[in-house]
């Protein structure tokens, strides 16, 4: 009897999940909502479409968003909408209701209900920000047929799984202008991310104007920094999108830029402090034994903190190896005086001093998980970034939550490592951890992190998007929404919608390839770029000294993406064919092999230059192995010479070249072994 009851209970609770999975095959929503029900109707989009706002829009968030919504809708559909602004009558096509104005804190309610029927579209939300989230979902429900465009008829109940859903952009290693940040904020809002973590200082540059300490921009920024007015502009722009802005000033390590301007704050006397041009972890560190260090930081934070209304203030605190501390006799004496046995204890002392400074400014200290030490007060927020890749059994997220800290996860979401979207999507922020209600509440959410050692304003969009749209789904949707194939199907659509917002991840690829070929026919290079991917997990720029901050990032690797589109299809077809031997898969495989086999002939017709010359051998070897395999499959023959030549080609193609790796290599090896075994 108990078993029967269990089966019934499981059936009741799993039914909604299975129904949502089926619907996700039809609708290209991302992130996927908590509940979607079809009603077999649709709302036609024509020139008479109007919007009305019935809530008290005191900050005018919804009004501004509605105007932008109408422009995006008109651009996507080509419909000449007569009324381009919200109207005051209740008889509008789209009715937006909300109860209160969001204060943009972790306690805000972003839920909404969306109802689309034949004659009316209604969005009901608790807050104005919830209404914005509903408008984004509505825009994703635009569809078309031969006669016109329409909104799909559905009812949606939606709310986020986590209150903190962020994207960190590092603007120190490479500076990213205001327009880059704004278009990425637009993209963040489109997939319901709500925290912009702004990494503003590091060894390679201090990017904030200080009127109290002007040397910070005069010496430590190379002339590339944000004025205080620009910072206010970004904060306001983000607020209008329902996005909080968290600043990060990385101390006491990663301080080369600060110390180039104010060397008296450093831990090593007579050291030649300079703005760093390479990447990596460097020795220059603020001196925690000098009272002037805290006076400097308190004065700086008093000036800067009011620019950022949010209560959270990130102080970095990561990757301080303490070399200059160990070499400083005064610091060693200070440690003995204060009974600080290790550098970790010394940094905890430093962090506690900063926590008190920030508390006076009504700010809550946040830092990378190196600050998680026994003496760190639980008022601090732990940003978990280390995991299995750094030698730990799991991320520090769960440990921090169990010890009483609020915490945010980034381990598994380091998008600068250029892992495939599948890798990131398969990471669940909490996993299977068993947590109490209070421990779960302390896990605020997660952030994708875009460190910018190897990205410039030209390439940053292609390194963030579209993968971050899929990551955003793991932060918003229920845990059970995790099917990779379904995600990739929907992501193809979202990918082009991101371009509508001004994201340059598609168009700038063509520019880079044109630059490489000196404006010749790009199809040959495009073909290659669809099967090669940039080296992953920091294999590019080993040791941080192959590239400087001003080196060219307009190379073939910069045109390639973390998910080579043809490679994904080809690899899936090879897997399917070797599993079931169906001819439909083999035909697709052969067509790809034919295309790649002939590509080198076209490559050879281009006027060569030093950039193309470096790619010539790559193109040639891909064509040779493709021709060998296609011929073998076609003729069902595989000779000793084929075996020798194939082994040699695969060996060459296995070696990284021009900072890229062949994304179809594993599949080519499998086909090679198949031909050798069967022919």
Give a quick precis of the structure:
The chain is an alpha/beta fold. Strand 15, helix 12 (397-402) and strand 16 form a beta-alpha-beta unit.
> How many helices?
25
Q: Main sheet: which strands, in order across?
A: 8-9-12-13-14-15-16-17
Detail the poorly predicted runs: none
Shape descriptor reads globular
- Share of β-strand residues: 15-25%
Distance separating the two termini: 58 Å
- Supply the helix-strand structural class: alpha/beta
Bin the helical content: 40-55%
Rg value: 27 Å
Task: Give a quick account of the main beta sheet: strands, pairing sense, barrel closure.
Answer: 8 strands, parallel, barrel
Could you tell me the number of beta strands? Answer: 19
Q: What topology emerges from the helices and strands here?
A:
Layout: H1 2-24, E1 35-45, E2 51-53, H2 61-77, E3 94-100, E4 112-116, E5 121-127, H3 128-140, E6 142-144, E7 149-158, E8 164-170, H4 178-190, E9 195-199, E10 201-202, E11 205-206, H5 215-218, H6 228-240, E12 244-251, H7 256-261, H8 291-304, E13 312-316, H9 323-326, H10 329-337, H11 343-360, E14 364-368, E15 381-384, H12 397-402, E16 406-409, H13 421-425, H14 437-442, E17 443-450, H15 460-464, H16 467-476, H17 484-500, H18 507-517, H19 523-529, E18 532-534, H20 556-559, H21 565-580, H22 583-604, H23 610-635, H24 640-654, E19 660-662, H25 665-678
Parallel strand pairs: 2-3, 3-5, 8-9, 8-17, 9-12, 12-13, 13-14, 14-15, 15-16, 16-17
Antiparallel strand pairs: 1-7, 4-5, 4-7, 6-7, 10-11, 18-19
Helix pairs in contact: 2-3, 4-6, 8-11, 19-22, 21-22, 21-25, 22-23, 23-24, 23-25, 24-25
